[in-house]
Amino acid sequence: MVRGDLTIFPLLSVMQMLLASGKAGKLSVTHPRGGDFWVDAGDIVHAQYGPMKGEPALQVLASLDGGIFTFEPNVAAPDRTLSLRREVALTHMLFDQDGWAEVLKVFPEWTSTLRFSARWSEAQPVTQQQYRALRMVTPGVSIRGMLERLAFRPAGDPSTLKPRELLDTLRPFVQAGLVEVVPA
Predict the structure, then answer these.
(1) Name one Pfam family in it (predicted).
(2) What is the pTM of this model?
(3) For 113-122, 124-133, 151-160, which range has the lowest pLDDT when averaged over its residues?
């Protein structure tokens, strides 16, 4: 078993080391946005964040900028939702990690909830994607809860937003004061 701190050993460096080693096992990260990765012979074969699996989970996990990681060798994946070779996996995660930077400035605490502010008007013009994202704003549901609800959308549903896409779509509404982040 290998343990470490992602504030000292960044996630991409840890993943690069694991994938280059060709080992199989489970990488768990304890963090409010934490979850699990399974690797096998230089591939990422499964990722899980709460009920979310596969590519959406991998996208959320790429947002990790801290937390304690534990690698348990020879732990088989409970499912095979991904098949990302080393270079593709690292490039994919780097792209996702960069994309989270601005989103996390607006939504740093995923236990917070969102609500429409007094400035919101039902006459506010929105696109279809914005409408789908704004429908997810529900009293009492945390940001994490909103993201986890994405896992229960039908597979292949074209209206399903990806995790970062959901928050990136809501971000301008928060910045404009139309939607408020309510700390937990």
Answers:
(1) DUF4388
(2) 0.88
(3) 151-160
Secondary structure (H, E, C), the chain: CEEEECCCCCHHHHHHHHHHHCCCEEEEEECCCCCEEEEECCEEEEEEECCEECHHHHHHHCCCCCCEEEEEECCCCCCCCCCEEHHHHHHHHHHHHHHHHHHHHHCCCCCCEEEECCCCCCCCCCCHHHHHHHCCCCCCCEHHHHHHHHHHCCCCCCCCCCHHHHHHHHHHHHHCCCEEEECC
Report the relative pairing of strands 43-49 and 84-85 from DSSP bridges. antiparallel
> Closest Cα partner for 3 from 14, 94, 13?
14
86: how many CB neighbours lie within 10 A of its CB?
18
Per the CB < 8 A criterion, the answer to whether 148 and 50 are in contact is: yes
Under 8 Å between Cβ of 107 and 137? no
85, 125, 164 from 89: Cα distances, Å? 6, 38, 17
